[in-house]
Design brief:
The chain is α+β, with helices and mostly antiparallel strands. It is about 15% helix and about 50% strand. Strands 1, 2, 3, 4, 5, 6, 7, 8, 9 and 10 form a ten-stranded antiparallel beta sheet that branches.
Length: about 170
């Protein structure tokens, strides 16, 4: 009887551990300290696998950026994004395709759970992004936040596409 319980526990663990690892696997972090305030972006980094995601997405697409758990930006200071003040805290990040070659980065005060549908309204701010062609191709999604002379620069690189924007740190 005890042997059967041990076998069942081992089977459950063998299934659960890889599933949890896959759900949270391939997480990346980008950090920058700007004007003494720390900004941290945490995201899943999927691979293209031959797709051209940016051009295939129809106008109106709301993409949660990354994979599995939502992409988040956590800040220890207030931000000014497209004229709106965002208090220190944690925000989920969403990319919205607003035109054939135009995107915005939307900041949402809620961080949904894994697999929840995209948050399509209630954004605290939306930052227009410039779409550029990268000099090199990135098989895996890369998101970086950097200090640009006191502003927070954000770059989303996947394939040969770059989505680039900047916002103020107060």
């Amino acid at each position: 009887m005890k042997f059967n319980k041990i076998i069942i526990c081992l089977v459950v663990l063998c299934v659960a551990i890889p599933a949890c690892a896959q759900m949270n696997g391939n997480r990346q972090t980008s950090e920058a300290t700007i004007k003494g305030k720390k900004l941290t972006v945490n995201y899943g980094s999927p691979s293209l696998k031959g797709r051209d995601v940016f051009s295939l997405a129809p106008v109106g697409t709301v993409w949660r950026l990354g994979m599995n758990q939502p992409t988040t930006l956590e800040t220890t200071g207030a931000l000014k994004v497209a004229g709106k003040i965002l208090e220190a805290g944690k925000y989920s990040l969403w990319a919205k395709k607003t035109g054939e070659n135009s995107w915005t980065l939307a900041f949402h005060p809620q961080v949904p759970g894994w697999g929840d549908p995209p948050l399509k309204e209630g954004y605290a701010a939306e930052l227009p992004l410039k779409m550029e062609k990268a000099g090199d191709a990135a098989e895996q999604l890369s998101i970086s936040v950097v200090d640009m002379n006191g502003k927070a620069g954000i770059k989303i690189h996947w394939g040969t596409a770059l989505l680039v924007g900047a916002f103020d740190v107060n």
